[in-house]
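Job type: complex structure
Entries:
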Amino acid sequence: MMIINQLKLLIDIFGSGCVIFTPMHEKLVDLLARFRESEGNLITLLQDTQGAFGYVPKEAVYWYAKELDVPASRFFGIATFYAQFHLKPRGKHIVTACCGTACHVRGAERLVNAVKRELKLEEDQDTTEDLQFTVEKLACLGTCSLAPVVIVNGKMLGKTTTDIITKEIRSIKKSPKKDE
Amino acid sequence: MSEISIRVCMGPGGIASGGGEVLSAFENLLKQSNISAEVKDRCSTHKVGCLGMCSKDVLVDIFINGNKTTYQKVNAGMVQRIVDEHLVQGMPVAEWLSDEEYDNFYKKQIKVVLSDCGVVDPESLESYLAHGGYEATKKALKAMSPVEVTEEMTKSGLRGRGGAGFPTGVKWETCRKVPSSQKYIICNADEGDPGAFMDRAVLEGNPHSVIEGMIIGAYAIGADKGYVYVRAEYPLAVERLTQAIKEATAKGFLGKSIMGTDFNFTIKLKLGAGAFVCGEETALIASIEGQRGMPRPKPPFPVFSGLWGKPTVINNVETLANIPYILTKGADWYASFGTEKSKGTKVFALTGKVKNTGLIEVPMGISLREIIYDIGGGIEGGKGLKAVQTGGPSGGCIPASMLDINVDYESLAKVGSIVGSGGMIVLDEDNCMVNIAKYFLAFTQLESCGKCVPCRIGTKRLLEILERITKGQGREGDLELLEGLSKDIKSASLCGLGQTAPNPVLSTLNYFRDEYEAHIRDKKCPAKVCKDLLTYSILEDVCTGCGACKRACPSGAIKGEKKKPHKLDSSLCVKCGACFDVCKFKSVAKE
């Protein structure tokens, strides 16, 4: 944590020229160039940033703020307003439970509870400590005929039961972590 | 030699049910045998918006010399036999063919918006053109004046399908008359109502119809720029729309001097970032401008001052997709469907505890009974119907006793619900109405943008009261408090979100007051849904002692020896229901 704070300080002091920051910095320069080219707005810039990093790093926002001369609060205002943006890193495996009306009446809540139980997550926690899993809810995926629906790493599981979903999670847990 | 065409349904339902495997199974088999068959999806080469009856997916249509045969619930293992018997020997596999339910599902439907969905290939402009695509645009641009187009719309009686039901012709007419050198048309594809997915089906199944609707609308009001504001949660819709815009531009249907006239029009795509309130017109405009999507007071209405302060018309996807059909077939034809004040057809997403789920398009004014029992095939698992929820978080519940009500704007408003964007969720006796009200309130409370006090704080307080009722801590006077607070929120909120947020509470209170009272006075949930009001126990005479519940219990509340009846210590029980879920012998009781 200390190091990150120092990094932030360095970025604040030296702006974009910070050497320690190179890998992220390169990406940010690229994203900003694309943003200027496409005449986008702050929302699209944040969307692209999240696309590149999987979340919106605070460091990126501070850097943009400086480059564009737009207060960082404007960015954070947008990032916290829209549900799509995440300000914290997310887990390697994403479990998205649809909690639309059709899924709700067919017991989506029970599925979420089962997943959280399996991953030993507290009620207000959505990412496991080891950053392996993130559990999130979504309003409606528009596949109500398959309710309740859970998406695990992009794979849609229709007519899910607590049994199906716990098995799925256990199999991911067991699978060798080859890409690490 | 006969011509064979195989179309596999690859809508969201089709894909999730294994449509991809079915398609590749057909492709592989046909490569091996020498049948000259054209293997394609229901709409063409790959994925396509569904045909409607998702509960029978994967659906496969086989055309032999134009004669259609439909198979239902197909999986990859069934493909070999279909190819051998049907394609080679010409004998359809009788037991897998679509049944009576499938026919009944379509019998009472009239398809306008969805008529080409699942027929044309959404990824091919050629296919759309072959089915009469862009004829309406040609007619409007070459043979009609903007005034005539607007008049035709007014005559058709088409009303906004996004929820509010404002007459489309009137909206266009008003905007057309506003003098301005720059105007915009926006397609609202931010389909946010949980339980509604018709816009997704149209965008994925027939994107060109929406583009055509936008071109015609732009011509009528005098706009040269258009935006489609689409949810990021619909990646396939975004992909199809992007391609459709590209193809239409290449063919000269978008861009400069469209079809040789002096009319110019371009369309840009804007991705939503996940905010329900952005379905509201002024919030949507703020979001396109790159700001927090917060609504502003109306007037001025967007038709006078919208995107970047310019006159702007915002139409919903389904509304726009209707327009080409109205223009080619005539306003009188469209107005012949429906009722006096609610003309035409409406797409509903029929879901919940009904047998046949899927997308249906019916004439306005059809009875709710016909929808649930004739089209929907009745309630699943022989349970009793309790209510039908329409209009999503802005709507209300219609009790089973009012099943003969006509489904149109006026009739639904009379009983405290709305047509809304067309979500129709069937609830049976296992659904708790207080829980349903709480569910919707939790949704609107979370999505409240926080700009105005009645909505921001009011919905929070409403939700707190509902939460304490479902936790068994309800008090006398809570119901009156709910009613009073609801009325205040409705009359004082800034935008449609707050003005309609209390509707689910008011309508369930109106028709299911006894359920609320049971929660408050008896501390019981009659439908056995509200977790805190339930107690779990193990029926010792049924328990086989398999130990599944003991292993599943997260709090160690279940004890017992192997092969002997187990016991549940209710003082340790956290009421998670894990034991109930895992028990294969129904020996866990909840009450």
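Summary: Confidence is low (pLDDT under 50) at residues 9-20 of chain A. The radius of gyration of chain A is 19 Å.
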